[in-house]
Amino acid sequence: MADKTYLDWPFFEDRHRELAAKLDDWAASNIKGINHEDVDAACRDLVARLASGEWLRHAAVDPADAGSKLDVRSLCLIRETLARYDGLADFSFAMQGLGSGAISLFGTNDQKDNWLPKVRSGKAIAAFALTEPQSGSDVANIALEAKRDGDDFVLNGEKTWISNGGIADFYCVFARTGEAPGAKGLSAFIVPAGIPGFEIAERLHTIAPHPLARLKFTDCRIPASALMGKGGDGFKIAMSVLDVFRSTVAAAALGFARRALDETITRVQERELFGAPLFDLQMVQGHVADMALDIDASALLVYRAAWLKDSGAARVSREAAMAKLYSTDHAQTVIDKAVQIHGGDGVRSGHIVESLYREIRALRIYEGASDVQKIIIARQTLA
User: Fold this and answer.
1) pTM recorded for the entire structure
2) Rounded distance, CA 119 to CA 169, Å?
3) Coiled-coil region(s) at which residues (predicted)?
4) Percent over 90 (pLDDT), the chain
5) Does 270 qualify as catalytic in the annotation?
C-alpha cells in the first residue's frame, strides 16, 4: 500500500486529496488486463478508459470555460498514481496533455474549440513533435523548415523519437520559419495526421515499448491558420509547455519509485533468509531507509515545483529542472535496489520490478536529459 501521508502536506488543497483518492480507487479497478504486446492497441484502449473515467479533462483546458487552466498539481498527482499502476497508462495520459499543451496555452479560440474537446473526450490522440535527428535537447537547432507560401506554410524535414508517432490524430510541430537566427526563428503548428506530404517514416523500438516514430515532411502543405501564436514564438511556446509538463515527468518517476518500494516491502516481509524474514538483516533495512528517503525528497521537489506554478509563478524552470533531475535519477536508484533485493525474480521477464527497471530509464532522457537539467539549474543559480 503506497504511502499517502504526503497528501497532508501544505502544497495540496482538499480537491487534490479528493482527486488522488478517487483516482486510486478507479485505477485499482480499471487499469487491469491491458495487453502490452500490441502497444498501439494498448494505448488506444487506455486513452478510451481514461476518457470514460473523465481523467482526460485534466490534461487540457476546457475551451468552454474562459477561466480554465492547467492545474500542475493535479497533473502530477494523476501521473504519479497512474505510473504506480501501469507505465503505459501514465504515458497515455501524459501525451494527451503534452501533445495538446501548446494549444491549451497558446491556441486561438478556433484551435482550442476544434481540438481540445476531442483530447478531453479521448476522440483524438495528441503528439508533441519537437525532437529532430540533430536537435534533441538543443531546441534552437531545429532544422525542419516551414516556408510561407501565400495562405499556407510548406513543411520539409524530419522529426524523431516522437511519442504517439503513428497513432496520433494530430501533432504539435515545431519548425523553422526564419524570423531570426536560432531560437527566435521557430514557430509552432498543428498538423493533422494523414495529410499529403506527411508520413510515418519509421517506427522506433525501445527497452520499454511505447508508440514512437520518426516523422518525415515532404512539401507538406498546411494552412496559415495552423500556426499557434505568432511567427517566431515557437521556442517560447515549447519552453512554456515544458515548464508545465517537466514536473509531471518527475511525478511519473515518483510513481515508479513508490511501486518499487511497495514491492520491496512485501518481498522483505515474506521472504526468509537464514531462518528469518529478509527485513531482519540490517543491510536490507538500510536499503529500505535509503529508498524511503529518496522518495520523500523527490516528492518535496515535485510538489514544490507544481505548487509554485499553480500559485502564479511565470516560470519555474529551475524548480522543475531540480524536480526532474532528482526524481528521475533517484527513482532509478530506488528501482535498482528493488531489483537487487528481489534477487533472481528481479530480472525475470514480466516481473513488476523488472518492468519498472526498463520503464524508468527513458525518463532520465526525454523532456531534457539529466545533464541538461544540471545546465538549467546552474545557469538559473548563477543568474
Assistant:
1) 0.95
2) 10
3) none
4) 89
5) no
